[in-house]
């Protein structure tokens, strides 16, 4: 896992409850790993060296399974499992589930409906690209997750702005404009959903389907509310599951959790993305299976080869809001938490952003202000409770003021 993941404690606690000894491998320099007493310090960018470190560790303490908590280590986990002869997705499938261009190419070849797409170099002239594409379109980085760098453009002028903004972001992340390509694809209208599933020998079991009741039409695609069970017709839900199964097979994903994002319109479901991991953030908190089994426990049981019988989600409706960042600045205060928690059906409000820290909204940002959780009798009631709780919250954000150079002023 990466040091900044929201999900560390959920997996560690699930392992502890199952009596499993979890060895945490963090994306940290060796010196910091030693200082923080991290068992396994790894450099996710140096896959070969990290696999070597994992294999060396396994000689002393053999592993039963190696899992990636985040997108950032899915390829590393695949290579490490391969080196140790453990069950996992192939490195090629894991790479395809991270690289949006490879994903699109394989989905198209494998029969999974997806947007028309093209790739361009960062050093290409945006005025020229603007004449080669159709509108509305969506500009995407190949590797960033969580909707970072994803921008809609409705005309050539908007495209040029979106292209330059994504280019600045990628260069700030260390990309070279001569070695980096981006994706431009048609915008697909419709409602958006997210499917949480588990693959066993290539067969997909749907764990739950989330509706996203807020319109996600751009120009940025910040996700907010997830509610389950889905209110879509059963026939549509079945078509979504079949679409995800087709996409999984096209990429070569065969085992473990999958998190898929789709759009649904009058033509049916369209694949946006699929990841070889479970849902991000703290969203899994609202999911329970069988007699109270959390998602992380389900994933760990599956990973170590246990036959998981109780895959059905509890009947109660549940929802979560990833609280969006309204603007850039320094977080100075959060007000109304008690009032939000007092809203009927709300089960928790967790503010994860730290006071006096910089807030960066999408498309450049990579985090949320926090999460609101709810459970209730129906999805509509859960959604209404989350919206009411969000209205109770007030965030005090100090906008950054440019410092003027007044030297020599009279």
TrEMBL record:
Keyword Lyase: no
Domain of life: Bacteria
Any one GO molecular-function label of the UniProt entry: ATP binding
Domain ATP-grasp: 104-304
InterPro entries recorded: ATP-dep_AA_Ligase, ATP-grasp, LAL_C2
Matching PROSITE patterns: ATP_GRASP
Keyword set, alphabetical order: ATP-binding, Ligase, Nucleotide-binding
The protein's name: Phosphoribosylglycinamide synthetase
Organism whose genome encodes this protein: Dictyobacter alpinus
Classification lineage: Bacteria, Bacillati, Chloroflexota, Ktedonobacteria, Ktedonobacterales
């Amino acid at each position: 896992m990466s040091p900044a993941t929201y999900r560390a404690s959920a997996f560690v606690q699930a392992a502890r409850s199952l009596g499993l000894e979890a060895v945490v491998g963090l994306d940290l320099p060796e010196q910091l790993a030693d200082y923080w007493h991290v068992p396994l310090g790894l450099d996710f960018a140096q896959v070969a060296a990290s696999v070597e470190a994992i294999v060396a560790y396994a000689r002393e303490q053999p592993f039963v399974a190696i899992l990636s908590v985040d997108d950032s280590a899915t390829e590393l986990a695949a290579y490490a499992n391969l080196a140790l002869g453990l069950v996992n997705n192939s490195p090629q499938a894991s790479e395809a589930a991270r690289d949006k261009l490879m994903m699109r190419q394989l989905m198209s070849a494998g029969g999974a409906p997806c947007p028309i797409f093209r790739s361009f170099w960062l050093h290409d002239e945006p005025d020229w690209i603007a004449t080669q594409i159709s509108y509305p379109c969506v500009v995407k980085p190949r590797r960033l997750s969580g909707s970072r760098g994803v921008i809609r453009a409705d005309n050539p002028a908007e495209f040029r702005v979106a292209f330059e903004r994504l280019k600045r972001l990628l260069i700030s992340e260390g990309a070279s404009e001569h070695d980096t390509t981006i994706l431009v694809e048609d915008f697909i209208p419709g409602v958006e959903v997210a499917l949480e599933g588990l693959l066993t020998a290539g067969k997909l079991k749907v764990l739950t389907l989330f509706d996203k009741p807020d319109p996600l039409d751009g120009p940025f695609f910040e996700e907010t509310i997830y509610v389950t069970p889905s209110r879509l017709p059963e026939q549509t839900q079945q078509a979504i599951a079949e679409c995800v199964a087709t996409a999984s097979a096209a990429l070569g994903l065969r085992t473990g959790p999958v998190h898929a994002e789709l759009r649904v319109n009058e033509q049916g479901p369209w694949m946006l993305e699929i990841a070889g991991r479970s849902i991000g953030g703290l969203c899994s908190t609202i999911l329970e299976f069988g007699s109270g089994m959390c998602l992380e426990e389900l994933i760990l049981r599956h990973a170590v080869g246990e036959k998981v019988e109780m895959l059905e989600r509890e009947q109660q409706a549940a929802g979560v809001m990833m609280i969006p960042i309204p603007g850039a600045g320094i977080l100075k205060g959060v007000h109304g938490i008690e009032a939000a928690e007092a809203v009927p059906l709300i089960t928790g409000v967790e503010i994860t952003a730290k006071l006096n820290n910089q807030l960066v909204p999408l498309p450049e940002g990579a985090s949320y202000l926090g999460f609101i959780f709810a459970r209730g009798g129906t999805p509509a009631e859960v959604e209404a409770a989350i919206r009411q709780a969000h209205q109770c919250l007030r965030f005090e954000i100090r906008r950054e003021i440019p410092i003027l150079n007044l030297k020599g002023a009279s």
